[in-house]
Specification:
With about 575 residues, the chain is mainly beta. About 5% of the residues lie in helices and about 45% in strands.
Amino acid sequence: MKLLIFSKILFVFFLAQSVYGQNPLFIPPSLTGTTFNLDVQTGTQNLYPGNPTPTYGINGPFLSPTIIVNKGDIVTLNVNNGLTVATTMHWHGLHVSPSNDGGPHQSIAAGTTWSPSFEILNNAGTFWYHPHGEGKTELHVGKGLAGMFIIHDAVEQSLGLPQTYGVDDIPLITQSKAFDVLQQIAIADHMDTSIMVNGTIDAFYDAPAQVIRFRMLNGSSMRSFNYGFSNGMTFYQIATDGGLVETPNPLTRLLLAPGERAEILVDLTTMNGQSFQLMCYGSEMTNGIFGAPAVGIVPDVIDMYDDNPLNGADYELLAINVIAPTASPVTTIPSTLVPYTPYFAVNADVNRSLVLDTIRLLPIDVPNLAEGPFGINGEVFDMMVNNIYVPLNSTEIWTLHNKTHIAHPFHIHDIQFNIIEKNGLPPVISEQGWKDVVLVMPHDSVKFITKFITFEDNMVPYMYHCHLLHHEDDGMMGSFIVSSSIGIDEVSLSGNDDLQVYPNPSTNNWEVKSNSIKGEYKVILTSLIGEVVYESQGKSFDNETTISIPTADFIEGIYLLKIQTLKEEFQTKLMKTN
């Protein structure tokens, strides 16, 4: 009750102030070059009068700098964890190897530095970076660890688009947060009544009277935003999650779920001296989306959802005051942008189906179809389990079935995809392009197509998950391995072409044979993360010896087999299938 009263007081304070906009919009500092030092640290912010709010930040007390690079750059990112707990850093939307991806398998211990290095392969676009630790994503993002990652390329720079960062090329990271009675950021709390843009409450921005490029990121833990302007003006969407679209899309509303990005152009050339607001039109959102008038059907509803005054409401995000143009303003919007060639369904090699559903974590659980607990294909995330094996260069159609009462933004790492259909219909124009997040409506389905290219790793997986961070942390996530070795029948152990293991993949057992290893030996089989799952030893291994390793009780996944003798060690990777 105290938290509810405090949240309503904050909301009334917010509404009273937001008519005029009291705080200048914070523009995160930009970092350029090819080597980036990112110091993860604690801090405090005076977000409300009274007690300072404990926060996390990178190179500062709150939020993170904007990283700006060019396609083709080879970058090194030194992530120094100055927290007292482990964290991670995921490059959301970037096409990188799994070992550089920054998922839960790349944990950065307190006081240590992680330094991934990779080539920028994505086309120009707006991406972002944030922690992705097992069960800790919402805590670390909610306390402030989120920043934009902007990529430029030669084609984009030839289009005459606004690209002076902080002047006519403006990042807008929109987030909602809940606060407790001690003014600390509350996690997994649905009273998220404080709205921030770039970490600024009740923000205003003085925009020059010219064409402005807004890079929109929904960085919230749960809330979707239905963007529009208070004066009803048309704006032009020029990019989706994965980069520029073919032609600017004229819109008056743009729905972005958590994790989604878009770039828009706003023509202010004739509006010098005018003021208006960037709004969220929550009253127009379809029920089932967090932030809409309703989520769930009684009795499966979200606790206190109706008590949150933002839900189903129209409210201000950012006050905009138009001032004189800069010395060299952009005054036109291009009619064409970049060619768009999607993947075609006829070329698909594989069709997969994922079910987003509630799940019983204990026999006595009674899942709530609006609040969970949730899982994917009847399972919750397990660091020791890989859920899907994808052949390198496989073109695949994934169909997502949502059997719950709440919309889930589904995100997949590494690749960009094209939405084929939503509930049997083509996607709306704002979702036609390259995407890495798609909102799956309640009791609805989404079908997308993608291709898994460039990177493979038999041991380290990528992630797919719901980007409602509370759902992700509770286990609505899975992992997949991309490998060119999937499907082979027989392997030779490294260092000894005569020692062979078959069949591979296996469902029941692996047979190990050799004509050249002699003497005492030891067999060790470990899981993806190094856990020993099988071990045996013998006095003699010769051309009459066959070692049979039973696999029926093993979970599906990649395993590392080692055979040690007194003088040598041989090893290989094996796959267990069901």
